[in-house]
Amino acid sequence: MAKFLAELLGCTLPSKGASPMFESKSHSRVGLKSSTKPKTTIFSTLASEKSLSDCKKEQQWKPSVYSSITPVCFPSPLIEKPKGKESMPQTPPFSAMFDSSGYNRNLYQSAEDSCGGLYYHDNNLLSGSLEALIQHLVPNVDYYPDRTYIFTFLLSSRLFMHPYELMAKVCHLCVEHQQLSDPDSDKNQMRKIAPKILQLLTEWTETFPYDFRDERMMRNLKDLAHRIASGEEQTYRKNAQQMMQCLIRKLATLSQYEEVLAKISSTSTDRLTVLKTKPQSIQRDIITICNDPYTLAQQLTHIELERLNYIGPEEFVQAFVQKDPLDNDKSCYSERKKTRNLEAYVEWFNRLSYLVATEICMPVKKKHRARMIEYFIDVARECFNIGNFNSLMAIISGMNMSPVSRLKKTWAKVKTAKFDILEHQMDPSSNFYNYRTALRGAAQRSLTAHSSREKIVIPFFSLLIKDIYFLNEGCANRLPNGHVNFEKFWELAKQVSEFMTWKQVECPFERDRKILQYLLTVPVFSEDALYLASYESEGPENHIEKDRWKSLRSSLLGRV
Asked: Which entry of 61, 342, 513, 530 is 20 to 30 Å from 169 by CA?
């Protein structure tokens, strides 16, 4: 499975002790006890096909911070939400759908209900045909879908159909069923239904704006918005224009962000190449750029929050999308993805890990390498205190890479007590229990925050992906009767919506352009260059290392 996820995220799965994204420490560091017991890796055992209740039993120990609130931040409503039709129960909010351990435990203890192709237990929507779920999304004069349903269905529907196909169906239902195509239709009815349709479109464009990079999506959106705005009500026209302008701004901002990432990627070079043309004596290191660990942790948090902010919720689903089991020839995402923000974020994690390892292996003198290690330990500790767990794990991964961990003489000069504490917090055993406990603490702090600094929660990203992957793989998308397994998608939406809340936090720290420029653009060593620098600092210890050292000197330096 690790290989699958590596390919999925655009990463190359390395040999043991190499790439930080999927790495376990391959050498014991001096001063720490080594254990013969293998550590649990990030990608432990792939769950086999399980029932939904079995999936939840395995996760009972992991309570949700957001079990009592609706975490997704939606735009302000244009209308008051109606009570709903008596014959069709309204989708309850997350607080009603989930208890502290996930699914409502009373779901299987009441009589069965069905309504228009939808299946309920205790007024909770569990499953339905795809067509019935689409019908349930579209408002009418007396009904507007609950926002948690809108988010959950728009997120999960892409497992079964393209967003542009869903948009076409929604437009058809709105036009045909609500008589938007009839100029002589009841104006009173139009006044009731038009703002509801506009609100649905607004929520779609606000929460899933990247769907509208597809020209077919944008064409349908403009057509439906034009039908609504062509009425006599000036308010509808104004709101439709605001919706379109906001969407265009978001898409333009994304394009600018992608251009910046492409420019950074195109100018990146290997550190060894730079060293050949520039003497090491005048090379800068991270401490000369920023000698305060807390300041560096703040700037790392800037980068993390900026990159998180551009990840759309649909990217989690698109990353693991598979063919619809009822249509073997139909792959919902056979076309090219519209964004790769998730992959770019994973690449940032790997870059930071390699940057840490490079900065440690670069100095010629042992005391300078030891000082660099202690500096990054302090940076990691400040990241932990801020709630920036992704940078924390990237720094730990960089210090645990084999070229760094083999520097025994250097580590002997390092006071490792603080590092041991951080490693304990991020220990992967028991499914990262210590980390998950710390994450819950940070999430709770965010809920009761008195300052913007206390709101920051940046999760260890590869573990979040792993959790969503297991949920998708462990539970079927469809039930034996062909119904969509909506109970599974409530849980998927809950996990993604927590992330949505965290990513919308604005970084409260002052930006330092000089530090940010260094972190994002300074050349780093490749894996081979790291090993060569490590061997040059502390010589090979066995024949295997000696042979590799000679090979690297020959291939990278042209020396024998």
From this structure: 342
Which residues share a beta bridge with 143?
Answer: 140
User: What percent of the chain shows pLDDT beyond 90?
Assistant: 58
Number of H helices, E strands in the chain: 25, 6
What CATH number is associated with residue 391? Answer: 1.10.840.10
- Mean local confidence (pLDDT), 96-109: 38
Cα dihedral 238, 244, 246, 252, rounded to 10, equals -150
Ordered DSSP codes for 251-266: HHHHHHHHHHHHHHHH
Separation of alpha carbons 91 and 74, rounded Å: 16
Query: For residue 140, which of 90, 188, 192, 180 has the smallest C-alpha distance?
Result: 192
Q: How far apart are CA 107 and CA 109, in angstroms?
A: 6
What is the predicted pLDDT for the residue at 550? 92
Q: Confidence class of residue 227 from pLDDT cuts 50, 70 and 90?
A: confident
- pLDDT tens column, 35-74: 333 333 222 322 333 333 343 334 333 333 223 333 333 3
**Between residues 281 and 260, which one has the greater pLDDT?**
260
Q: Are 444 and 68 in contact (CB under 8 A)?
A: no
Q: What is the mean pLDDT of the segment spanning 368-388?
A: 97
Look at residues 222, 248, 274 and tell me which one is the last residue of a structural domain.
248
State the greatest distance between any 2 C-alpha atoms of the chain, in Å, as a whole number: 88
For 422, the domain range is 285-321+337-525
Q: Pick from 398, 388, 391, 396: which is nearest to 356 by CA? A: 398
Tell me, yes or no, whether 360 lies in a domain: yes
Task: Provide the Cα torsion 445, 450, 452, 455; round to 10°.
Answer: 10
Token pair listed for 380: 């990691």
Nearest to 202 by CA among 164, 249, 175, 241: 241
Residues 370 and 30: their CA atoms lie apart, in Å, by: 13
In order, the DSSP letters of 166-187 are HHHHHHHHHHHHTTTT-TTS-H
In this model, does residue 28 exceed pLDDT 70? no
> Are residues 230 and 363 both part of a single domain?
no
Reference 301, options 434, 521, 462, 457; nearest CA is 457
CA pair distance 543, 252, nearest whole angstrom: 56
Q: Are strands 484-485 and 124-128 parallel, antiparallel or unpaired?
A: antiparallel
Question: What is the reported pTM?
Answer: 0.77
Q: In this model, does residue 18 exceed pLDDT 70?
A: no
**Residue 358 sits in the same domain as residue 488:** yes
